[in-house]
Structure formats: C-alpha cells, structure tokens
Specification:
The chain is of the alpha/beta class and 417 residues long. It has one domain: Metallo-beta-lactamase, Chain A (4-Layer Sandwich). It contains 13 helices and 16 strands. Helix 2 links the parallel strand 6 and strand 7. Helix 1 packs across helix 2 and helix 2 runs parallel beside helix 4. It is globular and about 65 Å long. The N terminus is likely disordered. GO terms for molecular function: hydrolase activity.
Length: 417
C-alpha cells in the first residue's frame, strides 16, 4: 500500500532535525524551501511554482520566518519557465510592496546575463512599439496562466511585471556571488555561505550560449532586424517570449501501467530508447549540490542529463542524502549513466502530472533499478499514475522501496538528520 499523507508530514530518524525540505504543491512545477540548522537557521528557496503556490502556501510560511527574525539567505530561480517562476513574480511583486521577508541574494539568469553584443544606441519609436506589443502579449499570457483558484480580476499585470524588472525595482542583490554575471559553472564552481557550500552543476557557458541562440532565432523568425541594445524592453521581451514559447512540442507517449508491473518489465523499461531533452531553456537550469554539515543534497531543476552526469560524477560523492529528480521525472532528462551517480535513499518528485504526463515510468525504473540494493524513499507531492505503479508490494519488496504521497493540498516536510 502507498502511504497517503493527509496533512503536512515530517519524517524523522531521531529527535534532531538538521535539515528540513518543504516541498510545496506547485501543480506541474517546483517550489522548495530548504531550512538548514537548528539555531540561526539558513533558508534557501528554490522556485515558486505558480502564483497560487505563493498565495496559498508559501506566503504564510515566509511571514512566519520573518516573525522568527529569519530571512531567505538565497533565492534561486532555476530558469525561465512558467511552472517555476510565475509564483516568483507574484512573490517579488508582493514583497516589493509589503516587505514580507528579507532576501539576502537572488540567483536568476536572464537577458542581461547572456554574452551578447549590445549596441549603445537607442531604439526608434517603431522598434519600441514592436517590443511593447510583444510584452503586452506576454503579460496577457502570464495573467492567464498564473492562477487557477484566485480570481484573475484580483491580479494586476502591467508593464514592468517581469521577474527581472521586479528584481531591479526591489534593489535585490542579484547574482552578486558571481559579480553580477551569469550563474554558470564556468564563472564560479563553488560558493560558500557561512557553513553552507553550494556546487554549481548547471548551467555552463555552452548551455547559456544555446539559450542566446534560441533568443536570436526567435527575433529572426519574427523578422526583427533592429539592433540589440541595453534597453530594459529587451529584458522584458526576452523573459515573456521564453515563457510563451517553451515546450510547445510535448511528448505525451505513455507506457502502459498494466504491462509493466513485474521486475522483468523494469529491466525492459530501462533499456528503451528515449529522445533526450534538447530545450535550451531547460538546459539553462541552475542545478546545485548543497553541502551542509557533511550532508549532500542535489536539486537538479530541469537540467540536461549530459551536464548533470559529468558534474555530479566529478563531485566524487558516493551517496547523496537527497535527490530532487530532474524535470519532474521526465524520461528525457534521465539516462542510465545519470541514474548510476544518483545514489541516494531519498528522491523527491514534484508534479501533479497534469501537463506533461510526468513522471515517466522509464525514469523511475532507472532510479529504482540502479539503487535496488539501497533502502530508499520516494516522495511525491501529488498522487500520479507513476506513484501508484511504484508502490505495489512486489515493487517495494523487490527494490527496497518506501513511498510517501501527498494529497496535493498541503506541503510535504522531509527531514534529513
């Protein structure tokens, strides 16, 4: 039987909780709050899902942290994708007005961080109108996609409402650990925040270069031949364009659950051919390894398996204390080679499976097969077809599994002692 969670759950090995990870209901997206230590805690917030995620769950928790005299030491927006940053737009806009919590530093790569020749000239009125029209389309899209339960009439979406514009308006320390440059492994591999160390696993400059080429190709396709400048209109147009055009081609091919409930079927699943993720936006994801008091936690965003494998392997860590599975368990972001270095006894999968049929059985099969001799727990913040498949008694016994499934209406708390 799968273990269904009706309220917030905290899983402990003893009375001392050194690290707590809160995985929020973020529909098909990501939102994680990582709290480190018992006293003088440090907090790392990674992505914010949709606006509902912020208003329904995250906001109250952030206000509680402020009451305790604590702050967000690091806020990471992994990449420009609606299921990761629409909630961040709501959060930062609200925080700029209400100062719900102090944010020590933000990591987020956008237009201004791409290595691109930018002219010093100004845009003509016609060129400004073209970009403003694109921004208006993006604003309309964000307003439509951000909310499911909160009335859209309660939300004002206006010029300057991109995440980049809001970060500038709020005066946050933005990529300051990288001297204002892109968060990239080629710029700095390891960052120290007091007693917390963070290794950058993705992106590198090559992945960011592909994102730049995607942007320039979009401009060419629209027959925009005007000069690229430092004008903030480009920042807004870049962010909205990526939000609107990401993952238009979605692979919804599903493997039959009924035909894959045996150990032999798992062995077949891991050998199947898969087209790997080639999205430049996902490739630009900020993926990290957090090291604190000898514990190692992987948060892999929607990163590509090639760069993740290479850089995780180079860490030389035999076993991780926790792994946030890349791209919500997409088959396109998990290879056998990558699963071999993801040795862990805790795996987090954040998605309700509604939009992209994630997580895919092929990804779970690789993870459980390559970790079959390790006692491990899989955490799902929503019940999905895959969570039902993985939690049969035969599967749990054969692969040393425990499965924790949230209701999708409250966060999961996962403790690492």
């Amino acid at each position: 039987m799968e273990r269904q969670v009706n309220n917030e759950i905290e899983v402990k090995r003893d009375d001392k909780v050194l690290i707590n990870i809160k995985m929020y209901p973020a529909e098909n997206g990501d939102c994680f709050l990582i709290s480190l230590g018992e006293k003088n805690r440090k907090h790392i917030l990674i992505d914010c899902g949709y606006a509902d995620t912020y208003y329904n769950y995250l906001k109250e928790d952030l206000q509680e942290l402020k009451k305790l005299g604590e702050k967000i030491n690091l806020f990471i927006l992994t990449h420009i994708d609606e299921d990761h940053i629409l909630g961040a737009i709501a959060f930062i806009e609200d925080n700029n007005k209400s100062k719900n919590i102090e944010i020590e530093e933000v990591w987020y790569n956008c237009y201004r961080h791409l290595q691109m020749d930018k002219n010093q000239g100004t845009l003509s009125d016609k060129e400004k109108r073209i970009l403003q029209r694109e921004i208006a389309l993006g604003e309309s899209y964000v307003k439509r996609e951000s909310f499911s339960e909160i009335s859209k009439s309660e939300v004002s979406v206006k010029q300057g409402s991109t995440l980049g514009a809001l970060l500038l308006a709020g005066g946050y320390k933005w990529n300051s650990s990288f001297e204002g440059k892109a968060v990239s492994q080629d710029n700095i591999e390891k960052i120290k925040f007091g007693d917390v160390f963070i290794n950058i696993l993705s992106p590198n400059n090559e992945k960011l270069e592909k994102l730049k080429k995607k942007w320039l190709k979009e401009l060419t396709n629209k027959k925009w031949n005007f000069n690229i400048t430092e004008d903030q209109l480009f920042d807004d147009a870049f962010e909205f364009m990526l939000l609107m055009y990401e993952e238009l081609q979605i692979d919804k091919t599903e493997v039959s659950l009924e035909e894959n409930k045996t150990i032999e079927s798992v062995e077949r699943l891991i050998q199947g051919k898969v087209n790997l993720d080639n999205s430049p936006t996902n490739g630009s994801s900020i993926a990290i390894c957090i090291n604190y008091e000898g514990r190692n936690l992987l948060f892999l965003a929607d990163g590509h398996p090639d760069i993740l494998y290479e850089n995780i392997y180079n860490l030389g860590i035999e076993k991780f204390d926790l792994v946030k599975v890349p791209h919500h368990g997409s088959r396109k972001n998990m290879t056998l080679k990558l699963s071999e270095v993801l040795k862990s006894d805790r795996f987090l999968i954040s998605t309700n499976g509604s939009k992209h049929t994630h997580p895919n059985l092929e990804s779970l099969a690789k993870l459980i097969y390559k970790n079959k001799d390790i006692n491990k727990e899989f955490y799902f913040n929503y019940e999905t077809k895959a969570s039902k498949w993985i939690c049969t008694e035969e599967m749990k016994k054969s692969f040393n599994l425990e499965v924790v499934v949230g209701t999708g209406s409250s966060p999961l708390n996962i403790a690492v002692d």
